[in-house]
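During the no-cost extension, the postdoctoral fellow (Dr. R.K.) reprocessed legacy sequence entries with the updated structure-token encoder. One reprocessed record is reproduced below for audit purposes.
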Amino acid sequence: MMFWDSHYLLFVMLPGMLIGLWAQMKLRAAYGKYSRVPVESGMTGTEAARRILDQAGLNNMPVEEVEGQLSDHYDPTKRALFLSSDNFNGRTIAAVGVAAHEAGHAWQHQAAWGLFELRGALVPATQLANMAWMGILLLGFVLHIIPHFILIAVAIFSVMTLFQLVTLPVEYDASARAKEQLFRLGLVREDERAGVSKVLDAAALTYVAALVNSLLQLLYYISAARNNRS
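Re-encoded structure tokens follow.
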């Protein structure tokens, strides 16, 4: 159905791909530039994260190294920070910025911040929707139940779009917390503010792209459902 639909290709797939590529290029450019700029404090990403966590009273929270590039994340189930090797060991503006961002998520969790808690509650449903999506797509073609498939697609993308909608302010808030703590604790200097902001703002663009892509998909299926009824 959709892969041969010119409207889907022109107004959903192509814009989604272009926005996603643009966001990734911005992130790679910003991260690549500032991962080569040493931070004046000489701290590693691990040390910066540790300082922020200790300041928040999270002295026992582990900060561990994980494989991959830009694979950094906070795991609320394990209550631990995981930093990619470049940021775990790196003494650069990018390393301390990314590490501080992940510490910002830990801070959100400690404070039981509403949107962070809501995103966590949506994770199981979103994972299920992601896993079921391709199977439902193929089933719709095989069994020739496209009308029912469209309604299921609307439901799936409603869940995924809600998750992305909640994720966006969560990510921006974690970055805001990171910037505040880095500067307040003296981990970065005034003239390093711009570099930290560029890295974290570029990372946030990837979440903007994900939300736009999900919205385009949802609007497409809502339109298809309406056309099917008429």
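The chain has a mean pLDDT of 91. The chain has seven helices and three strands. The remaining legacy entries will be reprocessed before the final report is submitted.
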